[in-house]
Every structure is written in C-alpha cells, then in structure tokens.
Amino acid sequence: MDEAKQKPGPSDTATDQPYNFMHHRSPAAISPPTQSRTAMYQSSPSPQGQPFSPQGQNVPSPLSPQPSTPTGPDPVHDLPEELLQMGWRKFWSKRERRPYYYNKRTNESMWDIPPLSSPGFVQNDPLGINTVNREQQDIRLSRNSLDIGQKRRLSEDHAMGPPAKKPSSGVQIPIVPSQYWDFAINTNALFMERKPINVLPPQPEIEYERSNICNRLRISYAELCKSREGLDAPKESFNRWLLERKVIDKGNDPLLPSDCSPVVSPSMYREIISDIPVKLYRPKYASEARKQLFRYSEAAKKRIDSRNVSSESRKLVKWNVEDTFSWLRSQQQASVEEYQERLGHLKEQCGPHLTDAAKHSVESICKKMNQMSRDAAKKISEKHWEILREHGITDVPYYRDPQHRKVPCYAVQLAVPSPRLPRVDYTVEGELTCLKYKDQVCKVNSAHFQKLEQLYKLHCLDDPRFDNFLGRAWCLLKRYQTMFGLRTNEGSGLQGALPIPVFQVLNRHFGVTFECFASPLNCYFKQYCSAFNDVDSYFGSRGPVLDFYPVSGSFEANPPFGEELMEAMVDHFESLLDKSTDPLSFIVFIPEWRDPPTPALVRMEASRFKRKQCLIPALEHEYRSGTQHTCSSHELYYRAVHGTLAFFLQNDAGFEKWGPTPDRVKALLDAFIPVGNEVGQNSGHRESGGHNNSTGNHTKSSSSSSDVSAVSR
Ligand code: SAH
Q1: 282: helix, coil or strand?
Q2: How far apart are CA 540 and CA 132, in angstroms?
Q3: Where along the sequence do coiled-coil regions lie (predicted)?
C-alpha cells in the first residue's frame, strides 16, 4: 500500500477519546455541566484496506476489492445479512486457496455459498414474515439494555460489520424495540447478487457545500419566477423538480440533477404554467370567489398586453376579460359555484393563449435551473475527488461481476472507500441530539438518533468502531434537511408515512418486510429503498427503488406524490412482476387524485397485475408526519385530506402467497382507523397525541368523489 493511502484522516490529530454511545440511555451520566460535549474518534485508524482474515491473511473475495485497493469488507462477514443471522460465516482455506462457509450454530461447513433453502430461511416461512423465533427474539430484545453480555449477543446476531471475535473494538449498540419501527423483522426480498456501486462516499465538507449550493438554487428559482413571470415560485415545485429529475438523471450527484434529457423538466414547466397568470385556489366564500375571478381577469389582461403575441390572441383574451368584467358588474350576489363556473370558462378561453405567451420564458427558467444545477454538480464532484485524493484515494476500485444468483437483498455497498471523516461535535439539548460540523448544526430527536445508531450497527460494513458514525449521521441529516427546503414544514409532505398499525398488518397478513420508498429516518423495516445511495447505504438502504430489482418478496410502496416518479414506479413494478415467477407482491398506496387522474392511478387501475384496489376515504385516516424525526409527539399524526388508494399488484405466485383475501383486506382497512375514532367521525387521535389539521400530505388538491371500489381480478 502506498504511503498516501496510509495517511491518517484529519481527525486522527484531534484529542482521541472513545465516543460513549451509552449517552442517551443515561443522560445524567454523560452530560457535563455545560450540556455540551464533543464526540471524539478512537485513537487508531480503522483497518481500512486490510480485509480481516481469521487466518491472518489478506484474502480476495468476489465482493471485496482486489488486494491492491485500499479497503474492503472483512470476509468473515462478507455475506448477506440473513445468512449471517443464521450463523454462516465465510472463511479462507489456505490449502485449497478458495473460500469456504462455516455455520457457527450447526457446525456445518460448505465450499459453496449456503443455499437459500437452508433450514429456517425465509423461503420456508409461509407468510414470509420471519425466520427467527419471534417470541424468543422479543424476549431477548426487551432485556435490560445494561445487560452487557446480552447486548453483545444481540449485536453479533444482527451486525454485518464488526468482527464477532473482537467485541472490545466494536461499539455496543443494543437493538432495542421501538413502537415506531421493528428491526426484528427480516427480509423475504431476494434479488440477484449485485456489486458495489460507483458512488462517492459522503464527506461532511462536500455535504456542507452541496447544501449551500442547493439552498442558493432554491433562491435563484424563486427569483427567476418573480422576475420573469411575476409569480411566487409554486410551493414545493422545487422539491417535485428534484424528484422528477431523479427519475431520468444519469448524472453522478446524489441530490442535484446533472445529466437530464429533456432539459426542460415537465413537472417544473407544468407547475409554473398552471400558476399563470395567477395562482388559483379553492374559495370558501362567494366574496373570495368573486375576488379571484377579478384578479384572474386583470392579470390575464396585463400579461397579454405585455407579451409578444399574435394580435388574434391579444384580441381574444381582451374580449373575454371585458366580457367577464361586465358580467361581474351585473352579478353582485352570485354564488361560489357561479363565480367558479365563470372562472372555468374564462380559463378555457384564455388559458391556451396565455400559455403560448409564456411558453418560451417558462422553458427558459427550466433550462436555466438545469444548467445551474449541472454546473454545481460538476464543481462539487471535482471538490469531492480533491478530498479523496488527499486521502490517497485516486480511482474507483475494480470489482468482478458477481455470480448470477439469488440472494436475500442487502444494503448498497459503495465501491469507493471512505477515508476517516473530520470531527463532528455532538451535544444533547433536552429531547434533541445535535450534530455540528463547522457552523452548521443538524438536530434530530434522540429516539431517531438511536434509530440511526441501530441501523448503522446492523448494516455498516466498514466501520465496526463507529469512527465515521457521527460524520455520516451529520451528512445524512444535512442531506435530508437540504432536500426538505428552507421554509418551516417545507418538504415534509413528501415524506409522510403510513401509520404504524398499518405496517404491522402489512407484515402479519401480507408478509411485507420491505418499504420501497423510505429514508433511514422514516423507515419501519430495517430493509428499504430510499432516495440516496450514498448517505443512506450505511444505514441499510437498498438504494433508489427504480434501481432495485427484486425477484421475490412482499413489498409496501408509499411513494412521494410526484407524478413522474409514481408513474415510473408503476412501470418498474410491472416489469418486475412480468419477469419473475417467484412470489412477488407490491401493495401500493397513492392519493386518489382524479381531477384529472394521475397517470399512475390510471395505469394501476388498468394493470393486469392488479388483484384488488380499495379506497381509504379522505379525512378518515392519517399519515405520520414527514418531520417525525424532529417534531414533537403531538404533531406526529395528521389527517389526510385526500382519499388514499391501495393497489395490490401481484404475480400469480405472489397472489397465491399474499393475496388480498377479504379477511386480510379488512384487517388492513381497520388498521387505518385512527385510534379512538370511528370511521366517519373526524375527531380521532392516536396514543401519541392529537393530529394537526395540515392541509395535505402532498400539496395538491384532492378529489374524493369515487366509491370504495373493490375490484378483484
Ligand atoms: N417509509 C414510509 C414513508 C414514505 S415517504 C412509508 O412507506 O410509509 C416517501 C419516501 O420516499 C421519502 O422518504 C423519500 O425520501 C423517499 N424517496 C424519494 N425518492 C425515492 C426513490 N427514488 N426511491 C426510494 N425512495 C425514495
């Protein structure tokens, strides 16, 4: 290994004290009088670049980088999580010069990777819910967290990262049960083995930069809308732009769109155009409706006068506006409906001309955003590589293609190794844990901070001593904070989660063990897909769902309500269902928007894989807040203002195994009923407290006109 690769990371020079991860369990013991303390990293660098071998040799493995590369998972634990949990470990035979597998529980040994049909494996579980004796596991999980011996055993059972034989160098994180997630549930999702992906590992300095740039982009977007169209940027449209662009982006930045074709984003274009000439809303009172009609007319006239349009268009718009003004003069006491009808008529007449007049300029806003984002991503990538090179990492290690075989799905592995991250300060303020890098503090509920610790312990392969934990947790929190946006509550609608009882029923009755849309902050299961490969991978993410190709398993999908992403999701699920003959099932929850219907809704209603659909009516169910990791418990649930449609998309084997029988569907619908509330009443709240009356999960007006439909194939 060359000298540069052995250079210690920046934090190696800091005062080294071990980080006490028991802090949140005994606050009094860990909080010095100042209520602030700094987490330090352990003194010696972690053994990056030295795959651990029980025989003391460096060994090649199909999933490890080649020996010349600076890092790699240790081969003992270089196995899918479920095999590790069954007791399988991978070793190197010196004599045969090939790997072999040994089961520490049953004393079996094998030359080939143990078959997936080994006793106890999820495939033998008729509901696909679990392989472990849940009762036994629950008892163990509920043991006192101070039982060190017990904790160690739990860590070994669940962890992929720390070598079981060196507990003293690993951090002890008990996997404790929570009412908000269930990490005892193992996955029944199988996919074809995949190799590490070429994505750069997170760096606080880069995340800091990316966040500043993204915030500036948001401001530029608002300014462009104002200066060119005289509009406030449509609410959340920047966030939906990010979502939509990611469906087609071929660039390398995890957040910022950088290689998209077409460059004009359909969602950004659509949302700006729909606010031209003014933003419309649903009025409650006649006076509001009258005012809105007047405003629209004025704005339409002004706009058509100031734009370069054909005289024909100008004449038509002006005539319609004048007609509306005289109607308004003659109708002083019209009803909301009458004003709205008149507005609809005016829109129909003027809309196409106003759109024509604005088309060029709105497209130029979209193009400008695309260009700025692309330039920013390039700058960020250059800086990222600069930092990596300073640590002796100069290129992407080579990985052989893995064998073509089905394995239980495991978290994304990054091909490029991660250097030691710089120092991140840690403090506790009441219920909040605060992580600070430079001048930027990320706050998270201490319960969710513990959740991150547990996910890291369960999934992270390259950091058994948690040397990089705080740095990575800060990057993750910063990424989501940046993704949410700058205003209070912004972005949280795109992160709203299903209630806990719904997940419980999905698991117990439909064998669901996996969320297709999640984050480390809102996941219920420990296996899930999420928006970001890089920051989320250490916390168990299987990556963005459109890049995830399961061949079997039972999945829940509650996508962020962005039209393009939802439609791409349907394409993806249908293609997966089409290709697999193993049991495969997706239970998808989307809003019931029928005015006009979203492409995803239309597609699923007509899907040949649809076994059933059912409606959970508007205002009769709740979502969990997208800010569940920062909000207080009384803000946790909010009432859905739109109906939610559940679709059961299953192939034949999936239908046979997890089909929507009447009993199961009833259990699911019951689970949506807010606790302490009967269907139809609007007063429910959960044990966690009341709900707020937030207008909507996903910032779009809803229509809840359709019947509860239960269409079976
Ligand atoms: N897991 C919860 C909450 C879902 S909210 C549930 O299933 O009820 C939707 C989540 O999808 C958000 O956390 C969002 O960040 C995530 N997401 C966005 N784009 C994604 C993608 N391409 N793949 C997977 N998840 C994505």
Answers
A1: coil
A2: 19
A3: none
**Rounded Cα gap, residues 290 and 144, in angstroms:** 65
C-alpha dihedral (535, 538, 542, 545), degrees to nearest 10: -10
683 touches 612 (CB < 8 A): no
Pocket lining for ligand 1, CB < 6 angstroms: 495-498, 515, 517-519, 522-523, 529-531, 544-546, 556, 558-560
Tokens matching residue 16: 């080294």
DSSP string, 633-674: GGGSEEE-SS-EEEEEEE-HHHHHHH---HHHHHHHHHHHSP
The atom number, within ligand 1, closest to the CA of 498 reads 8
Please, are residues 559 and 569 in contact by the beta-carbon 8 Å criterion?
Answer: yes
Write the burial class of residue 47 (CB in 10 Å: 0-12 exposed, 13-18 middle, 19+ buried). middle
What three-state secondary structure class fits 554? strand
- pLDDT per residue over 316-347, tens digit each? 999 999 999 999 999 999 999 999 999 999 99
First and final CA of the chain: distance in angstroms?
61
Query: How far is the centre of ligand 1, averaged over its atoms, from the C-alpha of 559 (Å)?
Result: 6
- CA–centroid distance, 518 to ligand 1, in Å, is 4
CB of 141 closer than 8 Å to CB of 177: yes
Q: Determine the atom of ligand 1 nearest the C-alpha atom of 524.
A: 1
pLDDT tens, position by position, 397-451: 999 999 999 999 999 999 999 999 999 999 999 999 999 999 999 999 999 999 9
Q: Which atom of ligand 1 is nearest to the CA of 544?
A: 23
What does the alpha-carbon distance between residue 117 and residue 694 come to, in Å, rounded to a whole number? 48
- DSSP three-state, residue 88: strand
- What gap in Å lies between CA 549 and CA 573, rounded to an integer? 9
Q: Which atom of ligand 1 is nearest to the CA of 556?
A: 7
Distance 516 CA to ligand 1 centre (A): 7
Query: Does the pLDDT of residue 289 top 80, yes or no?
Result: yes
| Residue identifier of the C-alpha nearest atom 8 of ligand 1 | 497
Which tokens hold the place of 370?
A: 């695309």
Give the C-alpha separation, 214 to 338, whole Å. Answer: 44
Measured in Å, residue 140 CA sits from the centre of ligand 1 at 31
Q: What is the pTM of this model?
A: 0.77
Q: Is 453 helix (H, G, I), strand (E, B) or coil?
A: helix
Q: Please report the sign of the dihedral spanned by the C-alpha atoms of residue 145, residue 147, residue 152, residue 157.
A: negative
